[in-house]
Amino acid sequence: MAQDLPRITANVVIPKPSLQKVFDNLRASGFGLIGPTVRDGAVVLDEISSLEDLPLGWMADQAPGHYRLKQTHHPEYFFYGVGPDSWKKFLHVPQLKLYSVEKTDGKWVFKPNYDVIPPRAFIGVRACDLSAIGVQDRVFLSGEFHDPHYMRRRERIFILAANCGRAYSTCFCTSMKTGPKVTAGFDLALTELPNAFVLEVGSEMGSEMLRDTSWEPATAFDLGRAAQSVQNAEREIERQLSTDDLPKMLYDNLEHSRWDDVATRCLSCGNCTQVCPTCFCVTVQDTSNLKGTLAERTRLWDSCYVREFSHVHGGNIRPTIRSRYRQWLTHKLASWIDQFGTSGCVGCGRCITWCPVGIDLTEEVKAIREKVQR
Amino acid sequence: MSLAPTPVEMHILPDPMLPYPAVIEDIQSEAYGISTFSLVFTDPAKASTYHFLPGQFNMILLPGFGEVAISISSNPSLPKVVGHTIRYAGSVTRALGRLKVGDMLGIRGPYGSAWPLERALAKNLVIVTGGIGLAPLRPAIYGILRHREDYGRVVLLYGARTPADLLYTEEFASWQAGGIELHTTVDLADENWQGQVGVVPALFYRIRVDPKQTLVMTCGPEIMMRFVIYEALARRIPKESIFLSMERNMKCAIGFCGHCQFGPTFICKDGPVLNYAAIEPFFGKEDF
């Protein structure tokens, strides 16, 4: 039964089980599905194949240094908030072979990494995370040099975004103006209602994936309910980060006593940088075979909390936790804006939830702001 | 139906992390633990198109060991042979020190900003360097010597730990003959040293500067540069006329690895040569 396809910017409604048809269409079109699924006590992002894999009814208690999944009776697929994973791990991969070098006839021959990247569909991308992808686009694709490894992964994704219907205590996307509603950069964006999905069509490809889903144009009532769902999430957000004049405020307070204070709590473990969807720092690792005829370079996620991160001959530039926390926070909220024209923070709250000692950057900024020292 | 984007072959996207093979043509010992490596790209096409500006650097790869960011210390008007003066300081540079003429390594670059020689035209120039900090300024000196009449008074203040640590001493006579005023100092003299003993910034007391007409370019240990800037400012040389070359840990040289950040600055792409006025709020900040 052939059905016309909705136009770009159209809003349509599909019954919840029809999302499976969207998945099937994506798979038939050559996309591998990556989406949220429950594993090891958390909602993680991994390969999925059907609606069954989604975290139906799962929600998470989130607080500084606290994350506990709980099963509820709510029949919602996308009410879990954000877990420790972000889409960063699929675009800016944690471990990447850059190239190998082979010695033949006494000469080094460089062999670039030509890995073929399969097209993938990201299912359930939050507004904050979509912004984070945009932030990393600026890091890897906007300057004089483009990262071909990032580009090859980035240009082959289909984005099925998911508006948030509820917020968690560590969320502060409204402060960073990234959510909770997605506004651009998606192929399809869903809003989950108790018995249906409202889908906004963001691209021709998105429209194509609605083939045979028995979609119907969204009524004013559906749109009202969808808007209300997003408003609910927005209302639930309590955490705030005041961004007024933030870079200057931080630059003016590089010797603030709060840095000493946070240094007594921070473990310098780097969890925040690993869960952050925008942190991009990497290191490289060189390996070779025992004969010295074959060598490889690997790029790995790094963290500015690692002591050796700033190593130069003669020592480390930032030997103290105080200096490393200050580097992370001032980069994220201040120098990022100088460097890339956007804040490095999207307000997803992961660094707060996943900090083992519950350090909350919004609280740190507040403390510095309240007692300005120069 | 297949609507997914078709795989794009990697080779149409140039990988900026990929080095070009080069051969060591010559190794010149400069001082204890410091040598100048003259490198030539094995690909003639690359060798003939390669060029660099004074102050820029290359990433030098020794496969299996790692990569280091090293300033180019050779003549920019002779870019077919790329010179790097290297101090054996870490694991990669020490491994480089075990290489012989004819051995191969990888180079990518040049990267970073250059000494603003165009701003020194018709002006006086004070170049202040310590130890191996002279290496990234040697290309600038060659450039000045080539068009000496374009500049006013050019002074080189240079110091090292001991007389034996002074680099490029065999070229000093030709630099002076070419119109560069040279003042040297050492921290620790030996029995043959007739010159000044003391730290580099103190050499400022040997010269007079016209602050409005003078540009300062400095490279050396950060602590030295701090006091060079102090001396320059004390002589009313404006911040905007002071340029320094900074060093930070560097893994990629193209702004992706994050290691070389210095506040808003990426030393790899905004630096290494920076205007003091632009970095003043951060320069000298403890552990920054």
Structure description:
The complex is a heterodimer of chains A (374) and B (288). Chain A has 374 residues and is of the alpha+beta class. Chain A has two domains: 11-92 and 115-236, no CATH class; 246-280 and 304-370, no CATH class. Helices cover 31% and strands 24% of the residues of chain A. In chain A, the strands form four sheets. An eight-stranded mixed β-sheet of chain A has the order 3-2-8-9-10-11-1-12. In chain A, a hairpin with a 2-residue loop joins strand 2 and strand 3 (42-47). In chain A, helix 9 (257-265) packs across helix 11 (321-340). Chain A is globular and about 70 Å long. The model of chain A has no long low-confidence stretch (mean pLDDT 94). Chain B has 288 residues and is of the alpha/beta class. Chain B folds into two domains: 12-110, Translation factors (Elongation Factor Tu (Ef-tu), domain 3); 117-245, Nucleotide-binding domain of ferredoxin-NADP reductase (FNR) module (Rossmann fold), CATH 3.40.50.80. Chain B has helices at residues 44-49, 91-96, 138-146, 172-177, 222-234, 276-279, and strands at residues 20-31, 34-41, 57-62, 66-71, 82-87, 104-111, 124-130, 154-160, 180-186, 196-197, 214-219, 242-245, 261-262, 265-266, 273-275. In chain B, helix 4 links the parallel strand 8 and strand 9 (180-186). Chain B starts with 19 loop residues before the first strand and ends in a 9-residue tail after the last helix. The relative contact order of chain B is 0.13. Chains A and B meet through strand 6, strand 7, helix 4, strand 13 and strand 14 of A and strand 6 of B.
| Topology, number of strands of chain A | 16
Tally of distinct domains of chain A: 2
Reading the helices and strands of chain B in chain order gives EEHEEEHEEHEHEEEHEEEEH
Task: Please identify, by name, the CATH architecture of the largest domain in chain B.
Answer: 3-Layer(aba) Sandwich
**Uncertain segments of chain A of ≥5 residues (pLDDT<50)?**
none
Order of helices and strands of chain A: EHEEEEHEEEHHEHEEHEHHHHEEEEHHH
Class by alpha and beta content of chain A:
alpha+beta
The amount of helix of chain B comes to: 10-25%
- Main pleated sheet of chain B: 7 strands, mixed
Gyration radius of chain A, rounded: 22 Å
Provide the structure class of chain B. Answer: alpha/beta
Biggest contact: A-B, 72 and 53 residues
Number of helices of chain B: 6
